[in-house]
Description:
The protein has helices spanning about 25-35, 60-70, 90-105, 140-150, 165-170, 215-230, 260-275, 290-305; strands spanning about 5, 40-45, 75, 85, 115, 155-160, 180-185, 205-210, 235-240, 280-285. The protein is an alpha/beta fold.
Amino acid sequence: xxxxxxxxxxxxxxxxxxxxxxxxxxxxxxxxxxxxxxxxxxxxxxxxxxxxxxxxxxxxxxxxxxxxxxxxxxxxxxxxxxxxxxxxxxxxxxxxxxxxxxxxxxxxxxxxxxxxxxxxxxxxxxxxxxxxxxxxxxxxxxxxxxxxxxxxxxxxxxxxxxxxxxxxxxxxxxxxxxxxxxxxxxxxxxxxxxxxxxxxxxxxxxxxxxxxxxxxxxxxxxxxxxxxxxxxxxxxxxxxxxxxxxxxxxxxxxxxxxxxxxxxxxxxxxxxxxxxxxxxxxxxxxxxxxxxxxxxxxxxxxxxxxx
Length: 307
């Protein structure tokens, strides 16, 4: 067994209100589908962790301010899209704890790779701003954990969510120890992610895609991802795994199919096996059509298991 799944029941306490696309049902359908793998995977819940690791990514005044904004009752909007309820803080902390546990498991050679089935997502959260359904930038905190706690020198983050991970890019724009690669629809929310945004030491690779991009065009573009990874040679790979580039997704216009997420993952795993002993932790970002999300996440984990 080489693949673990990390999730927490506290995702159910993050109430975003009626008709919000980032809903409780997202994790429910993913976890039910992943149970079909039976003994090929092992399930875990996140553990408590030192919250100071969050301060390596987010500014203290932002964290203090957010702590006051979790309501005792009902829901509250942090911006036009980002909603929190009383249970959101625990869910958000468990999302962070999930990627940290996954990293621990991989570094300690308990598993080869991990998928974190969590909400809220994280890649839009900047160092001092919540946005795009995101409160803490989970993948950025995971990358910082690898650099600061485990003393890794080179970590790659690959973000195949249909929306550009503006928060992850902003946090690591001036950090040559992090390679951030994003494939995303452009121009589109959140407005960042042009190919001209390269980072202080060419450590940012944005691959903007036109509305209506098909699978063939996507995979032709994906060759740039593979080349960049080969050149950079990271010691560890983190995935911001959004499944909203699916043709059925209501929030975007990229035309990938469920099976394409198997191929995306397989190509990344093949490179990871060559350059960093297969060390991958994947964490859920977007994906808002429940059937597409269920199928695509299954294909993603299938590739992690098989390759």
